[in-house]
């Protein structure tokens, strides 16, 4: 999005910066704060909400700001923004309700809390840029319905691999090819990893062990590829995706897929372990015009029928401000569901589970997530991974078995369950009425 730097420079020159607030001040949130404060003229991070004020303060301080004020009401927040101070609060809802904020960035990774925040933001006509594939992959389609009705944008972000894939998908489509595969390159995939096995790596990089585990055990990539599928109209070739191990370059993988199957499914999302250029993304597309295929061959993309396009990196927090600018200045979605969910993430036993146990969260010890086509999820009544935390098991479930709603008792009163039920009803296939 080369036009963004010019548009932001104009806002800086006019003294009218895009005002953004952020919910969540963990490892990624601190990176976003540093990026906006120090590298994005024409944009201001006016407030941070976090359940720990110390973490919010740290995010500003590490970015070089000591102009920080604690706020506890909407009025205090609005006054701080007007005075050019950096506001911090424990109450995320203040950011949703306050005037003087152009967009929110949601960086929590939490499903239930995130659902409350998004619904409150939509109710107060706030654009939201999500760095929360877990929420998006669970109830993103119905949240998009609410956002559309309110006339606001709800989108995933640049930098994260789903957003990078979508940018590449749009490029490939814009030059006349038909994208048939959106892929993610991983260095490791082991569904049995847990916070204990990942503790040393997490400590080395200053991250949380369960977050690192969610990447290692495949849950995170499942959510990421699910939202890519839901934003492109693609599916998965099988439960868990194909997930090839391949040590060469992704350019060399174009003959590993059945083009007719890809076309029949309307394209697929997938991942590969060990390929180059890691940790990038790739899109395989096809072209029906023999003349254009001749040119593609001349330009060193091969003889087809699949042609490889890739981005060799994903620069998570560096690119999030670009998403904010796209939304606020150009009303452009990065990645959002196109309609009914096509791919979900289903809960799978990481160990032998026992009746009476309460399931822990994403990236912990008891479960991992796998992609599955949404029609099968509905037919088999499978339990979405984003709703698994806090569920009580009604029966034993063996290792590697996918859980169903019949296997668990849901916690009472959760908004995420209510919205999931709404989503199922809203997008349910229309029943054909018998004619007399």
Oligomer kind: single chain
Low-confidence stretches: 431-436
**Backbone CA Rg:** 22 Å
Strand order of the largest sheet: 3-4-2-1-5-6-7
Structural class: alpha/beta
By CATH reckoning, the class of the domain at 3-160 and 317-330 would read Alpha Beta
Tell me, briefly, the overall form. Answer: globular
Number of helices: 16
Account of the protein in words:
The protein has helices spanning about 5-15, 25-40, 55-60, 75-80, 90-95, 110-125, 135-150, 160-175, 200-205, 210-215, 220-230, 260-265, 290-300, 315-330, 375-380, 415-425; strands at about 20-25, 45-50, 70, 85-90, 105, 125-130, 155, 180-185, 245, 270-275, 280-285, 305-310, 345-350, 365-375, 390-395, 410. The N and C termini lie far apart (about 55 Å). By secondary structure, the protein is of the alpha/beta class. The longest helix is centred in the first third of the chain and has 18 residues, at about 135-150. Helix content is about 40%, strand content about 20%. Helix 7 (about 135-150) crosses helix 16 and helix 8 (about 160-175) runs parallel beside helix 11. The chain has 16 helices and 16 strands. About 50% of the residues are buried. It has a domain at about 5-160 and about 315-330: 3-Layer(aba) Sandwich (Rossmann fold), CATH 3.40.50.
Walk me through the topology.
Elements: H1 3-13, E1 18-23, H2 27-39, E2 43-49, H3 53-62, E3 68-70, H4 74-82, E4 86-89, H5 92-97, E5 103-106, H6 111-123, E6 127-130, H7 133-150, E7 154-156, H8 161-174, E8 178-186, H9 199-205, H10 209-216, H11 219-232, E9 244-245, H12 259-265, E10 268-273, E11 281-286, H13 290-298, E12 307-311, H14 316-330, E13 343-349, E14 367-373, H15 374-380, E15 392-393, E16 408-409, H16 415-426
Parallel strand pairs: 1-2, 1-5, 2-4, 3-4, 5-6, 6-7, 8-10, 9-10
Antiparallel strand pairs: 8-11, 11-12, 13-14, 15-16
Helix pairs in contact: 2-3, 2-14, 6-7, 7-11, 7-16, 8-11, 9-10
